[in-house]
Write a structure and sequence with these properties.
Layout: H1 12-26, E1 38-43, E2 46-55, E3 58-62, H2 63-70, E4 73-77, E5 80-85, E6 88-92, E7 98-101, E8 104-107, E9 113-115, E10 118-122, H3 124-133, E11 138-141, E12 146-149, E13 156-163, E14 167-175, E15 180-185, E16 188-193, E17 199-201, E18 211-216, E19 221-226, E20 230-240, E21 243-252, E22 286-291, H4 308-327, E23 330-333, H5 343-352, E24 357-364, E25 374-379, H6 383-386, E26 392-397, E27 403-408, H7 419-433, E28 439-447, H8 450-453, E29 459-466, H9 470-477, H10 480-505
Parallel strand pairs: 1-12, 13-17, 22-23, 22-24, 24-29, 25-28
Antiparallel strand pairs: 1-2, 2-3, 3-10, 4-5, 5-6, 6-7, 7-8, 9-10, 11-12, 13-14, 14-21, 15-16, 16-19, 18-19, 20-21, 25-29, 26-27
Length: 509
Amino acid sequence: MHARRRPSFLPLLGALAVCALILALGTGHPSGQSSSTSLQVVSRDGRRAMALTASNGQELIALDDLASAFQLAVREERGAVTVAYKGRTIVLTPDQTIASVAGRLISLSVPPQHSGTRWLVPLDFITRALTPIYDQRLDLRRPSHLLIVGDLRVPRVVVRHEPLGNSARVTVDVTPATSIAVAQQGPRLLIRVDGDALDATLPAFQSIGFVQAIRLADATNIALDLGPRFASFRSATSAIDGGSRVTVEVVGNEALAPPAGPAAPAPAVTDQQPLPSPGGAAGLRTVAIDAGHGGDDAGARGPAGTAEKDVTLNVARRLRGLLEARLGVRVVMTRDDDRTLPVETRSATANNNKADLLVSLHANTSFRPEVSGATVYVAAFSDADLAVEGLAPERLPVFGGGLRTIEVVPWNLAQIPHRAESERVAQVVVEAMRGRVPLAARAVEHAPLRLLESANMPAVLVEMGYLTNAEQETALAGADLPGAVAQALFDAIVRVRDTVSGSAEGPGR
């Protein structure tokens, strides 16, 4: 097969807009369940979609499609497939993962496969084989099914939405740091990101009266479609680690709020027991995730050497991805790398960020290797702690001189007002795990854990399984069980959010 003509791309502006829209729709799915069936190739000449084929968990792309797009010469000879570009050669061998790239050996994830008259290669062929011989930069972003050719600026954009009663906060995080501008144009707010296209993740969204939709308007603009209750907006930009952030607060007009509707009918009586429902909070806007241990503190280790600190960080990152992409809440991580953190710093991170929920992740250990199953812990307090009445008054200096009496909650008793909510959250987590994550015989336990005692919000600690159980160590070190734990926790947090929102809104609102 040969290809000598230039790629046939669409005009740039419309193409990039379509690409951005496809990316936004395609990145809201959990890992491993992509709805995309094509690789979007974007260059200065426009856009082209290349079909992908799934095989044994791998995504494959046709070699002749790559040849057409990148002016490659492909030929079969003496049991090998040769790919040439401007005098540089790739040699592939059927049923072999080893390939020669300009005389150097590289390894592909799976061997080339023959399908009818076509050769299929894994996506890492682009990064490991094609990139070294090609004369333009190739940036493959597999989660987005996006291949950027050349010097295009395509920042990663994550949009989150937080309802705040009669206002809403929309946060746009852009990586790397990029200029962002916000302006009103008629019945919409436009958030313009400086770049050639956007690799965007948009939140699931339902109209709230003053904001009707969050969408991509074109290649570089995110649109907030305004509703009849829109009154005003304000925005602020700030720097974040490795990027830029713009926060837009949209305010609604209370005078135009819709009237209360009729009371909802009583739910039908069923034999199925409903999930326990947490309550008492005014809303769920910020979730703190604590990946247990880290740095010099490896935590438990399994017989095969799996470290607890690695398991907890893996699940924490998975859960954060689900929450940010699909729920739009603000997520605070106590750690996002391999660092040592004292317990006090972990609880302070959640408290100082005014988290509405804290989930701490751990893996258990036992002298008996047969012990297995997940357990959810809530804080336990002594009778003496619970007998403490009121808050501790302290005389503190105030601005302008003088002293003022301030009622201070003792650090180690901050959880006491939230015990009931934490208990209900634990029950919701257990029900979400049931049938998906192996559970211990007693799935909810109480213990005087310092992290939970000092959390000034509903808080649970999840022991995801036993690393000292060889079977569970293998599962926790793999992909399936961490994915199941993260999904179960996400489902539980959705239930917490929905229940809290319902109790906060009340009937008729």
